Amino acid sequence: MSTIKILDRNFNVYLTEEQIHQAILLISQNMNIDLADKDPLFICILNGAFMFAADLFKEIDFPCQVTFIKLASYDGTNSSGKINQLVGLKENIAGRNIVLVEDIIDTGLTIKYLLDELSLKRPSSIKVATLLLKREALKIDIEPDYIGFKVSNTFLVGYGLDYDGYGRNLRHIYSEAE
Ligand code: IMP
Ligand code: MG
Fold first, then answer.
1. Is 136 helix (H, G, I), strand (E, B) or coil?
2. What is the value of pTM for the model shown?
3. Ligand nearest to the CA of 52
4. Interatomic CA distance for residues 86 and 45, integer angstroms
5. For residues 121 and 138, what is the distance between their CA atoms, to the nearest angstrom?
6. Which of 106, 116, 141, 162 is catalytic?
7. Is the CB of residue 160 below 6 angstroms from any atom belonging to ligand 1?
8. Of the ligands numbered here, which is closest to the C-alpha atom of 69?
9. Are 123 and 98 in contact (CB under 8 A)?
10. Under a CB-based contact definition with an 8 Å cutoff, are residues 53 and 81 in contact?
11. Gap between the Cα atoms of 155 and 133, Å rounded
């Protein structure tokens, strides 16, 4: 079925499972060249990147480690904005080659926060792999090292991406219907 309804909103297929698979193969081919002798630590950013990360890691053909982090965001008592906190990283990343694995970069503020936090821990390098990049929504200057698709500035669900917690399980990526 190409149109679906999640809660109150309608979505159409935007990227099929097959298109996603092909993009992941391209990314992994580049990683298999670039990172083969780097003993990288892949860091999957939960929740959204879980499905992309799982499919990507299966295509990696060199020794690597995989871990998972999460951003907890809460309302600060003394400030109006949300405060982010990096949780779940147990590994010592000093001197390591890090690859951050993200589902989607929208404003870029999340990935910027993570790059700043992780840099404090003195890794050798940090690369960014994102399945989706909403280039028009970017508020910061960032050039991810691996990009699956540059997408239009519309709301997407499926393949890890959620609408109010729903839709993460879908095998295709959907965009909101006009
Ligand atoms: P950023 O900080 O604005 O770059 O937002 C990144 C995060 O916002 C992603 O990790 C997603 O969790 C979420 N996000 C951004 N755009 C979408 C979307 O179209 N659908 C679902 N989640 C999104
Ligand atoms: Mg995310």
1. helix
2. 0.95
3. 2
4. 10
5. 26
6. 106
7. no
8. 2
9. yes
10. no
11. 12
